[in-house]
Amino acid sequence: ADGGDWKFQDASASILEVQNDGNGNAVIITPTSDKDIKFLGNDGGSTITALTLDMSAAGFASFNDGITLKNDLFINNADGSATAGYLYNDSNDFVIRSYTSNKDIIFKGNDSGSVITALTLDMSDGGTASFNSHIRLGDNKTASFGAGFDLEITSDGTNGTIGAPNGNLTLDIAGGFAIDADGGQVSFSDGGTLKSLIDFTGNNVEIQS
């Protein structure tokens, strides 16, 4: 082209152009309004559209199948001013990272037509997790708290257990404290051996050794 553009035309209409942006960078342009750039190939004898760049949607890229990256995936702010976050493998683990200081990682979804924030990881508070609703674990799975798993909550599908395997369990309550056995007994054991219980018979309360 000797300094000019390469133009691919159909009946004098320009379909695709390859240009020099003036700084030695190659630029590929589809000049017709809202016309896409498509990459096609042969997959086992069938023609496939591997990639479509949708020019009616700001160049939105639609891949026909998965995307494999050798290195990190960076996600910039909307204006492209800085990196907002990225996904990468640190040779051991898969990492999702919020790059900007004190900016949270938020998981959103669609709940019957309404956009909800299911989970927020607060980076200005040490990564505190705030769930929008319940946290559910399967049977015989344990929710543990503390670096040494000092508090454990477990359910076997029928019975629930709250344990402090490393030390004492303290209940610090601002209001009243209620135990509702729902017709059952309140028992006290030591090392698995039953020591005493409180039983309710009619209007009577029995404390037994």
Oligomer: single chain
Physical arrangement of strands within the biggest beta sheet: 1-2-3
Share of helix, binned: under 10%
Strand residue percentage: over 45%
* Sequence stretches where pLDDT stays below 50 over 5 or more residues: none
Task: Report the count of strand segments.
Answer: 18
Average pLDDT, rounded to a whole number, is: 92
What's the helix count?
0
Largest beta-sheet characterization: 3 strands, antiparallel
Verbal overview:
There is one protein chain. This protein is an all-beta fold. Helices cover 0% and strands 51% of the residues. It has no helices and 18 strands. It has strands at residues 6-10, 13-20, 26-29, 37-43, 46-54, 60-63, 73-76, 83-89, 94-98, 105-111, 114-122, 128-131, 141-145, 151-155, 160-163, 186-190, 193-201, 204-208. The strands form six sheets. It has a three-stranded antiparallel sheet with strand order 1-2-3, with no helix packed on it. A hairpin with a 5-residue loop joins strand 13 (141-145) and strand 14 (151-155). The N and C termini lie far apart (101 Å).
